[in-house]
């Protein structure tokens, strides 16, 4: 048994299922883009697990997103 909590999921106008995870941390150093790239790799397995589970119920294409509202940062990829 696996218990997960998705921050947000929705279907867009192109019938793509999105799974978005919100990250509220801050970044104090330079090179914000490199930090966001590292965070994407850090959370990749977690979000891709969400996608595998969602595909059991929904056969649509799935896109994954990481949203950093405090940093105005965004990363997305297709699974």
Task: Characterise the protein shown here.
With 79 residues, this protein is of the alpha+beta class. 30% of the residues lie in helices and 29% in strands. It is globular, with a radius of gyration of 13 Å. The chain has one helix spanning 32-55, and strands at residues 8-11, 17-22, 62-68, 73-78. A hairpin with a 4-residue loop joins strand 3 (62-68) and strand 4 (73-78). The longest helix has 24 residues, at 32-55. The chain starts with 7 loop residues before the first strand and ends with a strand.
The shape, in one word, is: globular
H/E element sequence: EEHEE
Query: Mean pLDDT, rounded to whole units?
Result: 96
Q: Percentage of helical residues?
A: 25-40%
Give the biggest beta sheet: 4 strands, mixed
Number of strands: 4
Percentage of β-strand residues: 25-35%
Strand neighbour order, sheet with most strands: 1-2-3-4
User: What structural class results from the helix and strand content?
Assistant: alpha+beta
Low-confidence stretches: none
Rg, rounded, reads: 13 Å
Question: What distance lies between the first and last C-alpha atoms, to the nearest angstrom?
Answer: 23 Å
């Amino acid at each position: 048994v696996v218990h997960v909590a998705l921050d947000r999921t929705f279907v867009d106008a192109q019938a793509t299922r999105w799974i978005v995870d919100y990250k509220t941390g801050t970044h104090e150093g330079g090179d914000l883009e490199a930090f966001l790239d590292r965070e994407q790799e850090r959370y990749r397995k977690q979000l891709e697990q969400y996608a595998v589970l969602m595909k059991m119920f929904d056969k649509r294409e799935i896109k994954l997103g990481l949203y950093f509202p405090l940093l105005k940062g965004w990363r997305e990829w297709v699974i």
